[in-house]
Specification:
The chain is mostly beta strands. The chain folds into four domains: 45 residues, no CATH class; 72 residues, Immunoglobulins (Immunoglobulin-like, Sandwich); 74 residues, Immunoglobulin-like (Sandwich), CATH 2.60.40.10; 54 residues, no CATH class. The protein is 11% helix and 40% strand.
Length: 271
């Protein structure tokens, strides 16, 4: 084979370069046409864009249920991201952040998207649970009754209140001891729990206050006439004023007195 002359090699190399330039020109022209029709961007048009900023409108650490508004430095073209993932529909100039995580924003201008902004970290602290555990029913004047809430951690505070009763121990802690009041009806407990992070919850609970159970130790005499009229003395405990007395299902005609131990003197009627 006859070696190719040097001038021929240079001409071939020149033809190859020209062919490659024509290909690049055609590719650029096609991209530009697509861009003009809104389909794409020219390779040469998308230069690196500076990242934008997102500015919080308040504290970025708050309790569950709170929020902070983030504002982009761009009025349009925004896409908000949480932990690097686009947030669906979050394309406005502002974004209301309620969840914990790292928030960034990118801005698309003329088909070119900027780098993500520096992250804004949002921290959401949990609220305590102030639901009160207490007995549903207590006897009036009873002592040693216990009510409690879940422990809210180190540094938490507990502020208790009570109506128709008295807190006797544990005020300022997650568990209290209380004495029921002298009135039957409703005793109300309330508490506000605040964590060391400043998050609070407040709850109340109603407890039914009842009379103590009546006990009868003796009935004298334990018999009477068929026509009634026999005075009977009843001894026992926890008799209350206005209590009713019956014999064999028949109510006594009167309750004439009581003493300690309480005593009732009914006059029963014949059954």
């Amino acid at each position: 084979m006859v070696p190719q002359r040097q001038s021929d090699r240079r001409r071939d190399e020149y033809d190859v370069r020209r062919h490659r330039q024509r290909q690049l020109h055609r590719e650029d022209h096609r991209r530009e046409q697509l861009h003009q029709r809104g389909i794409g961007r020219s390779r040469r048009d998308c230069q690196p864009h500076p990242s934008h900023t997102d500015t919080p409108g308040g504290p970025t650490t708050f309790c569950a249920g709170g929020n902070v508004t983030l504002t982009s430095s761009s009025a349009s073209g925004n896409q908000w991201l949480l932990n690097g993932n686009p947030i669906g529909g979050a394309t406005n100039n502002t974004y209301l952040a309620t969840a914990a995580g790292n928030y960034t924003v990118t801005v698309t201008t003329s088909g070119c998207t900027s780098a993500a902004s520096a992250a804004t970290t949002v921290t959401v602290n949990p609220n305590p649970n102030a639901t009160i555990t207490a007995p549903p029913t207590v006897v009036k004047n009873s002592t040693g009754n216990i009510a409690s809430v879940a422990n809210a951690g180190v540094g938490a505070t507990y502020v208790w209140g009570i109506t128709n009763g008295t807190i006797t121990a544990g005020a300022g802690t997650a568990s209290i001891t209380f004495t029921a009041g002298a009135s039957t009806g409703t005793l109300t407990l309330n508490v506000t729990v605040t964590t060391s992070a400043g998050c609070s919850d407040a709850k109340s609970a109603n407890v039914n206050v009842i009379l103590p159970t009546v006990t009868v130790t003796s009935v004298s005499p334990n018999f009477g006439t068929a026509t009634g009229g026999t005075n009977v003395t009843i001894n026992g405990t926890n008799f209350a004023s206005g209590a009713a007395v019956t014999f064999g299902g028949t109510a006594a005609t009167s309750v004439v007195g009581s003493r300690s131990p309480p005593r009732r003197r009914p006059t029963p009627r014949a059954p």
